[in-house]
From TrEMBL:
InterPro entries documented for this protein: DNA_pol3_chi, PolIII_chi_sf
One Pfam family cited in the UniProt record for this chain: DNA_pol3_chi
Membrane spanning stretches: none
Highest taxon of the lineage: Bacteria
Protein name from the UniProt record: DNA polymerase III subunit chi
Organism: Pseudaeromonas sharmana
């Protein structure tokens, strides 16, 4: 059964950090991912943020237009993925036509009313495509091990 999870953002400013955490967690579980960015600038911003993570959180990834992206478990792009992946993280304002190729989709509900309405439309699209849907609060950041010492 295909699953779509919408995370309710309580602060639109921290979405990039949340996406990086989700990508890292899913990669560490052994999953392959495609992150659909709204635009090239967002894709590059996410790419840079993932490179800046500490070594323990390293995620092999690439932008769709890079020649070696087919070997990376995480692909970031503004079109469809170059190879099959398990999970789609959607950062675009629309639900992509290719979403049905994924076993799971993660999407977001921002606080801004205009963008929230776009999230409702994506929700309807996923439901019509046969996804089981759930809406959850955005997961809180976990303290790193050196913060608990």
């Amino acid at each position: 059964m295909k699953q779509a999870t919408f995370y309710l953002l309580d602060d639109d400013a921290s979405w990039l950090e949340l996406v990086c955490r989700l990508v890292t967690e899913r990669y560490q579980r052994g999953e392959t991912l495609f992150v659909l960015a709204a635009d090239v600038s967002t894709a590059e911003q996410l790419d840079e943020q993932l490179w800046q993570q500490d070594a323990a959180s390293f995620v092999p990834h690439g932008l769709s237009d890079e020649p070696t992206v087919g070997m990376a478990p995480v692909e970031i792009g503004v079109q469809g993925p170059r190879r099959s992946r398990q999970l789609l993280i959607n950062l675009a304002p629309h639900a992509p036509a290719f979403a049905g190729r994924f076993a799971e989709v993660i999407d977001f509900v921002p606080t801004d009313e205009t963008r929230k309405q776009l999230a409702r439309e994506r929700y309807k699209h996923y439901r019509a495509a046969g996804f089981t849907l759930q809406t959850l609060p955005a997961p809180a950041a976990q303290p790193s091990s050196n913060e608990t010492d």
